[in-house]
């Protein structure tokens, strides 16, 4: 019995379908992609109707592409899978036909009809099953808990209880309004996120990923810890367009992890380096793990402003990881690649420098104020145009068609996660749990803003474990957001704080999704990889606290404050990294290490007094460390 239960809680696996069925589904996926492009950039359609068609189409594909669990057939869908797929289509058709009535009806005033109950219930349970198959037990259990809370939470004590919600009431809010299943996460998945994933797919297929790797290799390959630094730079560059730590690990890690192991990096360490490097990709603008689009839709902040605000925190993350990897490599005596193993910047730019143009197009369109939809569309068209210049990168109609289908298939699991997140958001809104939760946090933390931030950070990480970045962010934003908004922080600061920790959850044990992807390549245990990744990026866990008290790191406020915040934070990250590694040119004493740790934290605190203390501690650390003192005298 326990074996049956445990297998039911496991995710399904992606099927290796017969060539014929795979081609059919690939064509259907490409048609779906064309439909998304048409309805988002060319013609206006009702958003509710478009989201319905998108969800039902993606669910229909999902049940054919993923097995129900470890026991499912991996070469072809079963009868049950076909039934679920066709039921998804039927439910979608019903909602589409009735969309005008659904949009115009007054929720809860007009009772649901029997066909509404049947179609709504079917789509609800299909979404739960789709989430279980693709995302796994983590998000599925969260959704289940919130559903049970919605239906039976009225019996809880006054602090957590609420007015009784019947099943019809629950279904009405969840399935027939834009506050539940068809809410912000799913709308974003069907529009902005889809188009930016399309841009990333085009860029990767045209050879952009190879260019990023070659450029990273040329810049850092021959330096100390060269392969690890290549992983950091290439994963960061690739992350700007992929927005998925798992995808980043699989793409760049398949090259960098074996390379690191060949030059003396242990199995676990090589996986940890790649996971730490890839996780940061979801912080890098413009895609930011697709969560930036949800943040814009949810908060009303301009997407352009979010992308600009995310630049410095993302760079600080990579300064942290790069510095610790450099110090760790020096400490372990790990060398770089040989001259004949790396490219040169000139050769890399000659082969793929044109791929910088789409990134410039994206940046210019963003600054000019175009909507995310058109920013992604212009960027995708520029990839095709740039790739056409050279025969080696040119994308023919077949390649474009395949890229369209690949984009849809990559979005299948994200769509399921976003739909499930919508259910949780609807449940929280229906019961007022966000406000109740804020009261609980303040009861625990009192009037201490730093304690509130620590509790919020921990909760954001816990809520995000095992989930894609968009789902992790929106769940934390809905539950933790009201707590932060009641403090003296701006909406940008509060939501960037939540986003940062939602991203970090991808590598935080015990459920580190990026580590599981790396474990297969590195041949190491996922837990060891995730623990190592957190150690390499531990300084990054402090950065969000820095921009909560120093808004200059989000490029907000007076220019002098921005410059000072950025300089001191960069120094703080480097000094903290040295303190954590206990190394700078040579091992340093425990006393000097402690001084550097405190100095790093002081550099990150936006205060002149803290800055003075930081400088004094760094000077003291140099004076008590013989090899640093001797270098200072020589200088």
Write structural notes for this entry.
The longest helix has 35 residues, at 397-431. Helix 10 (192-206) runs parallel beside helix 20 (372-387). The protein has helices at 2-9, 19-41, 47-65, 79-97, 99-104, 114-134, 137-152, 167-175, 184-189, 192-206, 208-220, 226-242, 245-262, 267-279, 291-299, 303-309, 311-332, 345-352, 356-367, 372-387, 397-431, 433-445, 449-464, 469-485, 491-504, 513-522, 526-536, 543-549, 559-581, 590-604, 608-623, 626-634. It has 32 helices and no strands. The protein is mostly helical and 635 residues long. Helices cover 73% and strands 0% of the residues. The protein starts with a helix and ends with a helix.
Describe the secondary structure blueprint for this structure.
Blueprint: H1 2-9, H2 19-41, H3 47-65, H4 79-97, H5 99-104, H6 114-134, H7 137-152, H8 167-175, H9 184-189, H10 192-206, H11 208-220, H12 226-242, H13 245-262, H14 267-279, H15 291-299, H16 303-309, H17 311-332, H18 345-352, H19 356-367, H20 372-387, H21 397-431, H22 433-445, H23 449-464, H24 469-485, H25 491-504, H26 513-522, H27 526-536, H28 543-549, H29 559-581, H30 590-604, H31 608-623, H32 626-634
């Amino acid at each position: 019995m326990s074996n049956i239960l445990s297998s039911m809680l496991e995710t399904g696996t992606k099927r290796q379908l017969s060539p014929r069925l795979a081609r059919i589904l690939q064509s259907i996926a490409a048609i779906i992609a064309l439909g998304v492009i048409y309805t988002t950039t060319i013609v206006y359609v009702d958003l509710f109707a478009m989201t319905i068609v998108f969800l039902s189409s993606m669910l229909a594909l999902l049940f054919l592409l993923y097995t129900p669990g470890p026991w499912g057939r991996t070469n072809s869908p079963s009868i049950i899978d076909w039934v679920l797929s066709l039921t998804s289509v039927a439910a979608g058709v019903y909602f589409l036909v009735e969309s005008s009535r659904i949009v115009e009806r007054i929720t809860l005033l007009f009772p649901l009809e029997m066909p509404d109950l049947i179609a709504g219930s079917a789509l609800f349970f299909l979404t739960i099953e789709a989430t279980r198959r693709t995302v796994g037990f983590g998000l599925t259990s969260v959704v289940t808990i919130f559903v049970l809370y919605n239906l039976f939470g009225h019996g809880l004590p006054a602090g957590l209880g609420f007015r009784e919600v019947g099943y019809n009431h629950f279904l009405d809010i969840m399935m027939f309004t834009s506050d539940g299943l068809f809410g912000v996460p799913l709308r974003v998945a069907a529009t902005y996120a889809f188009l930016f994933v399309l841009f990333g797919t085009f860029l990767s297929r045209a050879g952009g990923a190879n260019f990023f790797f070659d450029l990273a290799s040329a810049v850092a390959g021959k330096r100390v810890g060269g392969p690890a630094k290549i992983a950091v730079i290439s994963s960061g560059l690739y992350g700007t367009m992929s927005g998925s730590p798992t995808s980043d690990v699989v793409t760049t890690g398949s090259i960098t992890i074996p390379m690191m192991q060949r030059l003396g990096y242990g199995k676990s360490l090589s996986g940890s380096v790649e996971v730490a490097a890839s996780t940061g990709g979801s912080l890098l603008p413009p895609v930011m793990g697709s969560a930036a689009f949800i943040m814009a839709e949810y908060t009303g902040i301009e997407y352009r402003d979010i992308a600009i605000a995310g630049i410095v925190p993302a760079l600080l993350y990579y300064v942290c990881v790069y510095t610790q990897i450099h110090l760790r490599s020096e400490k372990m005596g790990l060398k770089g690649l040989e001259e004949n193993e790396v490219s040169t910047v000139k050769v890399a730019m000659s082969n793929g420098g044109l791929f910088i143009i789409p990134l410039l197009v994206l940046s210019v369109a963003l600054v000019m104020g175009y909507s995310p939809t058109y920013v992604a569309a212009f960027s995708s068209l520029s990839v095709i145009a740039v790739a056409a210049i050279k025969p080696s990168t040119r994308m023919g109609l077949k390649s474009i068609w395949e890229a369209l289908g690949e984009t849809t298939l990559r979005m299948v699991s994200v769509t399921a996660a976003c739909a499930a997140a919508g259910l949780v958001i609807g449940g929280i809104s229906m019961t007022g749990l966000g406000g109740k939760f804020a009261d609980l946090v303040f009861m625990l933390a009192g009037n201490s803003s730093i304690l509130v931030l620590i509790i919020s950070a921990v909760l954001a990480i816990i809520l995000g474990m095992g989930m894609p970045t968009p789902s992790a962010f929106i769940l934390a934003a809905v539950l933790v957001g009201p707590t932060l908004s009641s403090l003296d922080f701006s909406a940008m600061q509060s939501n960037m704080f939540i986003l940062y920790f939602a991203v970090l959850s991808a590598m935080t044990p015990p459920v580190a999704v990026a580590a599981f992807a790396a474990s297969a390549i590195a041949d190491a245990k996922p837990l060891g990889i995730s623990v190592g990744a957190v150690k390499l990026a531990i300084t990054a866990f402090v950065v969000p606290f820095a921009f909560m008290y120093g808004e200059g790191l989000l490029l907000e406020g007076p220019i002098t404050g921005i410059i000072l915040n950025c300089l001191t934070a960069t120094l703080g990250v480097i000094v903290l990294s040295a303190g954590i590694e206990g190394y700078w040119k040579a091992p340093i004493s425990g006393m000097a290490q402690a001084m550097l740790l405190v100095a790093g934290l002081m550099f990150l605190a936006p205060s002149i007094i803290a800055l003075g203390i930081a400088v004094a501690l760094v000077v003291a650390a140099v004076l008590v460390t013989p090899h640093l003192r001797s270098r200072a005298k020589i200088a």
